Amino acid sequence: MANTPQPASTSNYQSLKESGLPFITANRLGMVCEINEAFEAVFGWAPRDLIGESLSQILPEAHKMSHQLAFSRFQLPPTQSAILGHPLRLATRCADGTELISEHFIIAEERSGEWFFAATLKPLAQPT
Amino acid sequence: MTAFRPESGPPSATLIQDLWSTLGRLESALAAISDALCITNDEHLVLWCNQQFEELVSASRLTLLGKPIEDLIQRLPFEDRRIDLRATLQKHANAGSMDMLMSKEPISALRIEWSYVSGEKPPSTIFTFRDISDQVTLEELRTQQIELISDETRFAMTSALCPITGMKMRPSLLRDIETTLTEEAGRLRALLLFNIRAFRLINDRHGYATGDELLAEVARRLKQAIRSGDQVGRMGGGQFAVFAKLSDIEELSAITHRMKVAVESTPFLPTNTQAVVELNPRLDAGSAAIRGGQSSAQGLLRAAEMALDRIQHGAPISQLADSESGRDELRDELAISCAVDHCLQHNLIPIALQPMVILETGQLYGFEALARPVTSEGAPIPVHRFLALSERLGLMDQVGELLIRSTFDVFRQAQLAHEGMRLSLNLSPSQFAHSGIADRLVTIAQQFKMPLDLLTVEITETALVADESLLSDEITQLREHGVSVLLDDFGTGFSSLNWIFNVPTDGIKIDRSYTAAVADPRRRLIMASLATLCRDLGLDAVVEGIETEEQRALLQELGFRKGQGYLFGKPMSLEEISTSGSQPR
Fold first, then answer.
1. I need a surface site. Which of A93, A128, B94, B97 has the fewest CB within 10 A?
2. Do B66 and A70 touch (CB under 8 A)?
């Protein structure tokens, strides 16, 4: 019988990445590190447009200020966030400037003392 | 020596980190202020707010961003609803303030101040909300608020329309009905009442803003569905009324059906919730019909209300709330509703695993996964109540999927698939109401690396009253993927034997009530016949609820090979499996 310690959560970087959903990661500075092909296909962003750029590129205008402040506060100890680890219904800005409602599932992992963020963005039925 | 050239590249990581830290401190400081704060853009759309503002408007920041602040303020429980905030803000765009009465006894008041953030173009505006209950008198507030009431608002107050749905409200609708009944004596007329099921719980769980959104959506769907010449209005709470002209009493059920289909056929996604919520509104309907001149509008309404009470399951909520047991029941429902919410927020439903064994040897071959939801105080919740309330709240799809995920997660963590153990998973009846459960189950199993040939799905007999061809299609798909399908609680539902032949299952699980009575000669005879039937048809048979050695011996003697029950092991949590092992006694 298994006695080895197991992760408490079903959601980690690898499981999000392997989900097949649009997927994006960012480093501790909030700069995009990686997007997958599903992300490119759904939101129209190419890696060259986003990699190394601020995450706020994919946020609607009304969300940017709040994102920057909450992101900065998260990095001050004690780290706390109301948005991690559960599905969130949010708008995402596409490369063509339109916005798509999608289900975001965001996680943060500490790697060698630095925070690293990953998220899946599942497109939802758009409000009519 | 190297000179610094500011335009020579991107800012350093250190600089960005420093800026993040500064911003983080700034936001922490703003969170510590006792006033509620909100910053909007030049169109008064929310860009940021502190925690006190979230508490003031009972919504999380993510759901507030981009919303007009006028709408948010308008939702606050002011005593005087006639104040036209939008007009006041337009009139005093650069800066202003107003004191609003929240309650008279005890006196509670809020001061709202706003001003442009200087230097910005286009300008942002910062709003502050301060409790001034101990700084003003009632008289001062009344004088100030009379000045804030606009002519437009005064007009709106007399129109008797619901501000949320735009529909006529109860008094206005009843006046119209009274007039029609008087003018059209002898004509057949009907009043149909529609209650949004569990509307109070939806408000409690998701907040009044979401409740209002649902009201507006249901109103829109009803308006689209009514016939020309019929009227629809809102009676209050989650209740709507349709006043219809009938040529024949038979039309009544057709109208009821059309309204229910219009409202219930499409899920509704509110935009006011932070978490993704899909509501599936369900209507309870009651109606009454009379000929004009036979009764008053009030009489017609009372008859329709009585019909609605009879149709709704159990006692009406109004009666429930008046009694001690009713209040307990409502409290229980709220506790379960909070538990459902907690599970969805945390993406986890507690799961226990009960051993399943070979009766002859006692050898363990698998586990049945059983949901074990608890209240916030740790009290266990009966699974059927947890699922029934999820169903009433329109959350069964999400809860059902979470049950599957949570089960696979526990099974993976216990590493039971590596040992070749089978996993039995219960699917609820409503999961077969729409197509796609087979696809979803297989996709999730693959995500959790759950071998499909070790998976058994148990379907309760009540599920089998759903669309038979849809059910058969889904079961066939599951079996094509290597998943076994058992008919659960066999013997407690309807037409069990018929379903064995009609639905392509791999076997049955015999309900514990048969095991408990296996010593009874007549029951034993039935059990023996079942064992023979299963063997001859090549069906698997698992007996539930085995608690004594005598029962095991009898069941073995009758020809059963597999079983489960407290004799072999109670349902165990992941920790219990890991620490004590899973070997049956």
1. A128
2. no
